[in-house]
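agent> fetching stored inputs for the zinc ion docking request
agent> found them:
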Amino acid sequence: MQSSQSRLDAIVAKLRQQKFRITPQRVAILKIFLNSDEHPSVERVYEQVRIDFPTTSLATVYKTVNLLKEIDEILEIGFVDGRNRYDGNKPYPHPHLICMKCKTIMDPEVSSLDHLTAEVEQASGYRILSHQLEFFGICPACQKK
Ligand SMILES: [Zn+2]
Ligand SMILES: [Zn+2]
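agent> prediction call returned; pasting tokens
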């Protein structure tokens, strides 16, 4: 596993190639996405980055997300209400566990997904390139309330 610093460096290099201007606040936005395991929304990252960089605009956060999407370094978890959430920690397809009450999103431990992909390929003749798998429920903390 790549350390998060070397991954950050690699992403910054990629963005420079795309002629993206790297400012300290953009690096701060990248760091939040890359290091967060809470699957933040754009608004959440915006709140966090404003602690150190109060002049950051929401548009800058959106622009950074779109660039990360273009270079496949972030996974978008789409929601019908438009409040998408992001995993910059694991930018490849993986299942998610979503609490319908508090909107917590976690990466569940799943061991059989490779089997499932192989089974779908065999049954359909498709070559599977990606998948999106979400489990919806009520998390343990919300069950206690
Ligand atoms: Zn919950
Ligand atoms: Zn995830």
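agent> quick read of the result: The CA atoms of residues 60 and 129 lie 31 Å apart.
agent> awaiting further instructions
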